[in-house]
Amino acid sequence: MKFRKPCQLIAEKLKKEGIFRPKFLLFPGRGNFLNRAAWEIARGRFGVIKAKNFGKEIKPGKVLGEVEGVKFLGLRGEEKADAVIVKGRGEIDFSNVEFRYPTVGVDFSLFEKLLPSEKKSLAVQIEIAFGIVKDYFTPENFAVTSLDEEGRSFLQEFFRPKVPFKTVEINSFKNVIVLDPNAEKEFTHEEVDESTLILIGGIVDSSERLKGSTAEILPEVKHRKITYKGQVEIVPDRINEITKIVCQYLTENKSLEEVVRENLTRDSKLRWLRKTLQKEVVKFYNSTGLLRGIPEEKWKKWQEEFGISDFLFRKAAGHVGGFFVFKNSLFDKVKGKTKKRGKEVFVVEEIGDEDVVKVYP
Fold first, then answer.
1. Are residues 256 and 281 in the same domain?
2. Average pLDDT across the chain, whole number
3. pLDDT recorded at residue 207
4. pTM for this prediction
5. Domain boundaries, position 28
6. Most buried of the four, 61, 74, 105, 191, by CB within 10 Å?
């Protein structure tokens, strides 16, 4: 199922109360402040008071964000407010607004296999992932699992004086899904409800020595992969990046493919491009030796679909010994075929400037 964000649910309640332009009389804060403020409103830490009952002048503000037709104001501007958002309780009762979301968890069962530098990186990624969950769900919807004493001490040291998220037991959830790049089936919102634990492996592998180890995490439960058109390599693989994709996908009217494309990172693009060049490169042979090329159509397609820049093409070129982008007209000059190291090579007498679009040495 798909979920509505806390800020959408609070905005809906405000509209029912006849409030369409509440103004923050406090500093909004970090991250998706509207969503985080919605959580605080529901908890009673922030309150909403209608302008007519506030008893003080409310200066106009500017629109900080609009949700479900409600304009949230703040700072100074020209929009007149019809209510204020303050610290402490207000006059509107939000107790009937319920936030029901799945839990995003990070598994610690492989923690002991991580190097010290990898453990530190894991903690940083978890900290960012926790913030992302607060931007889409609530702080209650992030947790860690399979935590032993070493892992618990590590988190307490990193997040002191207090670890801001909870530890949960797997058996407390009716539905558990492990995100695993080697799974057979793809992740879908149709398998997710508020009783679901979506588990990400706490693996930070700087040398690929733990490649494939996600399969060891709870093999008895569902394992699902996130792909882009069936491809795993281009999907970002850091914990916080995966968390962002999952949360955005579950709260927006977009396909998983669309969300993955929006969240591609430079590292994921480069990783995919290096592997793809190895598979897609076309080899030519002439008097100067062996040359590697990529058809212009594919080169343009990768630029348009993935936003791959010249910088990334240059970086990836070193992985295949350089390549050039060629026009289809080059195939008209092919005199025959041969094999080099068991692979097909096109023999040409010469390659002219009119056949070459770009060279990446």
1. no
2. 94
3. 58
4. 0.91
5. 6-87
6. 105
